Amino acid sequence: xxxxxxxxxxxxxxxxxxxxxxxxxxxxxxxxxxxxxxxxxxxxxxxxxxxxxxxxxxxxxxxxxxxxxxxxxxxxxxxxxxxxxxxxxxxxxxxxxxxxxxxxxxxxxxxxxxxxxxxxxxxxxxxxxxxxxxxxxxxxxxxxxxxxxxxxxxxxxxxxxxxxxxxxxxxxxxxxxxxxxxxxxxxxxxxxxxxxxxxxxxxxxxxxxxxxxxxxxxxxxxxxxxxxxxxxxxxxxxxxxxxxxxxxxxxxxxxxxxxxxxxxxxxxxxxxxxxxxxxxxxxxxxxxxxxxxxxxxxxxxxxxxxxxxxxxxxxxxxxxxxxxxxxxxxxxxxxx
Length: 336
What we know:
Elements: H1 3-14, H2 40-49, H3 52-56, H4 75-93, H5 97-106, H6 115-125, H7 132-143, H8 154-161, H9 172-195, H10 206-212, H11 216-231, H12 241-259, H13 268-284, H14 291-298, H15 303-313, H16 316-327
């Protein structure tokens, strides 16, 4: 009995005709033997979940850097919330849950330490630029498993690469994750901002609240319901026009009041200097990189890109530790 084939047949009978069927995947970068138990997207999900880059997300900043409190989101909890939103939407629309979960769990694997501050810092100094969605694909293709990569399917890689607002995934599952990412960060970043005392629920303009609700919970529920009802039995994933407009207004409000808030972002400049200082140091001392990264350079990868690979993979704490080891006298850090 081949369990995978039975599951693939179940997909054909149950899922929407607009769903991505495991049996019809465009394949992997390198051909490999099929698993007799798991369809391809479930296998990709498992590979991502067991990867080192996924585990590192627990110590990477989402929005609030080194917050005082245990309940602020990290890049890992953000990823899990994106995954849950995406699976809820996919189940209701009879899309492929394994595919949305794989994309959601992998979408931020290439994110830097210190959130978008770290991303901006590397993008400014690297001549090739730095974009976390592209780095996430580079992570699963090249950096994981000591250079062998995870060899994910084309559909998962496409969804990871195109999860940002500017992206356009070719599967509906990828589009679900793209919306789910926005829904998740708008919801939890506001929740964290309220917890930090930067915002009050009542600060949200009334014209937004009248459309999508007056609390974080109401808005999350409204976004997901609207996306499902608007997309149901259609070959597209979309929000209704009033809700899409309200989401854009809320996103602008968040940029003005949270993402560009001095109090919330007070440590970001320090983080940018730290990241760029590490970049300059390792660019001049490539021989001090771990062996896996030195091998990348020996295989012809540009020095600057390899340094970005190393620094981009760091957790917040590891980046600070590396900076202290290089630039701070040991007795100042209490190490002697």
